[in-house]
Amino acid sequence: MRAKITFFVLAAVLVVYFVLVGSRGWLLIREGTPLTVTFGVAVLVLPALGVWFLWRTVGFARDAGRLARELEAEGGLPVDDLRRTPSGRIDRDSADEAFARRRAEAEAAPEDWRAWFRLAVAYHDARDTPRARKAMQRAIALHDGRPVRR
After folding, report:
1. Model confidence over 22-78: pLDDT tens digits?
2. How far apart are CA 148 and CA 100, in angstroms?
3. Helices (H), strands (E): how many in the chain?
4. Which residues have CB under 8 Å from 93's CB, separation 6+?
5. Max alpha carbon distance in the chain (Å)?
6. Where are the chain's structural domains?
7. Strands (DSSP E) found in the chain
8. Predicted TM-score of the model (pTM)
9. Of 1, 38, 98, 113, which sits with the fewest C-beta atoms within 10 Å of its C-beta?
């Protein structure tokens, strides 16, 4: 829950930033000189890219949440039985053991979105965020019947 609140607060701050930067870009364009128009267009590119990135991130989070709810309803969510350090962080060896099991499951059933979802969770627990994201994207694509990127 804390992660969701943080995400929405940061997203709101980004939206405010996009509006402020966009308004400055628009003011530069309205000046009408070739230099200010060029700068204004360049300034507008940043919020446009930011809005696109935020839109993709929100869509990814929504889709991952949809899969998590479906897997939870089926009783197939991975159980969090990993050992933790005194500070509460997941023990690296414990995460590696769980990862090895999840990778074997995904290799045994490469077209099963559930196996890829659990592998994404294992990557996340092992603190490998880029691979966790790719595994989750694959799970979403498999679930939705879309082509899977290799």
Report:
1. 999 999 999 999 999 999 999 999 899 999 999 999 999 999 999 999 999 999 888
2. 22
3. 5, 0
4. 83
5. 63
6. 2-74, 92-144
7. none
8. 0.79
9. 1
